[in-house]
Automatic annotation (TrEMBL):
SMART domains: HTH_XRE. It comes from the Bacteria. This is HTH cro/C1-type domain-containing protein. PROSITE patterns: HTH_CROC1. Keywords: DNA-binding. Residues 9-63 form the HTH cro/C1-type domain. It comes from Geothermobacter hydrogeniphilus. GO terms for molecular function: DNA binding; DNA-binding transcription factor activity.
């Protein structure tokens, strides 16, 4: 899936007649990061995908999953088949998998399962359009939100305005898992 997101980023950028430098300036990205996304050697975080989708004139789910082919009225994803591919570690310090079927049009929310390795260095805070609901499934997670730090434990949940600066990071000795539902 990593390669396909990068290919869609590149195709949309080229279709808009934008250079990599122009997109980087608009998104606040380093050129080397955008190049790595397009080449499939790095994974953009959910927030970066949201920013790029706005800049490139696409909906978030279009950039993540490609063109829509599934009804938006009801989508059932059975256990073991619901992930549309696991994304490797992002610059925000987590790996993620989508919890909905690729190609579903009309979704306002996108659910993800994020896994945080506490040994990975903390990423830079990010902000993007939309809102997020998160639920800590396993372990402990640090939330830096709008300059304040919060410790989240298993069973804790947070609803936040994603346009404010935020970052999540795993705590402890073993990976932490968090359900995140993002509107864009």
């Amino acid at each position: 899936m990593r390669k396909y997101v990068g290919e869609r980023i590149q195709k949309l950028r080229e279709a808009q007649g934008l250079s990599q430098q122009e997109v980087c300036k608009l998104a606040g990205l380093e050129l080397s990061r955008l190049q790595a996304y397009e080449e499939g050697t790095a994974v953009p975080s959910v927030g970066v995908v949201i920013k790029l989708s706005r800049i490139l004139g696409s909906r978030f789910e279009g950039l993540m999953h490609g063109g829509g082919t599934v009804s938006d009225a009801l989508t059932i994803c059975r256990a073991g088949t619901s992930f549309a591919g696991q994304q490797g570690n992002t610059e925000q310090g987590y790996a993620y998998g989508t919890l909905t079927r690729p190609g579903t049009v009309g979704h306002v929310m996108e659910p993800f399962m994020l896994t945080f390795d506490p040994r990975v260095p903390r990423g830079e805070p990010i902000s993007h359009d939309g809102q997020e609901f998160v639920y800590v499934v396993e372990g402990a997670i640090e939330l830096l939100y709008d300059g304040r730090t919060y410790r989240l434990e298993q069973g804790d949940s947070v609803y936040l305005d994603a346009s404010r600066s935020h970052r999540f990071h795993g705590l402890g000795e073993s990976p932490a898992r968090m359900l995140a539902v993002v509107s864009s």
